[in-house]
Amino acid sequence: MIKKIKILYEDANILAIEKPSGILVHPDEHSKEKTILDFFKEEYPKVEVVHRLDRETSGVMLLAKNKKAYEFLKGQFQTRTVKKIYNAIVFGYFKNERGVINKPIGRSPVDFRRHLAGRGARGELRDAITEYKVLKEFTSPQPSPYKGEGEKFTYLEVKPKTGRTHQIRVHMKYISHPIACDSLYNPNGSCPKGLTRLALHSQSVEFKNLKGKVVKVESPLPLQFRKLIK
After folding, report:
1. Which positions are annotated as active-site residues?
2. Is residue 150 part of a domain?
3. pLDDT of 85-117, one tens digit each?
């Protein structure tokens, strides 16, 4: 039995799980640690990953139990009919309550692990659209290393309309509101007091199952997030 990772939804073809922060989705040749696939392969031998979440990101993630389900769900992601909502905590306050970032994403010229939106992006530039809405602003009691006072943060609802690698992280960095505790895209930034992980969470995913029924799966906000925005 799978004990460490919670199953949020299950039918004959599809699993929706609550991915913890800090676990890889796919095997990494440089690491022997257990992955999401490893957790589920024994009970579901034909399981396949339909979409990815970064190692540090938590929340709803879909798995297909068989090839037919994989192709069915993959088609929905490709036609952008899957509706995804994330929660994020980012640096700074926003002038507007809502916004849309429409900026293609390419590769970083200085770090192969990173992607980049805007000037300097290399390789194929792929269209990327991210909508966001301000939910709450707050000041962390932890002193800022830059100003000597509490750092300003904003809690967001984020809806990526495309599915590019690191899309939300890249777009938030592009508009100068990097995600809190993002060691890859904002390595010199401070973390709000009490937050020890990337402040990005897959809150819900809405899709159609193989019977044509619309299913919306939700994951509760992580405890560290809840304490910060209370």
Report:
1. 54
2. yes
3. 999 999 999 999 999 999 999 999 988 899 999
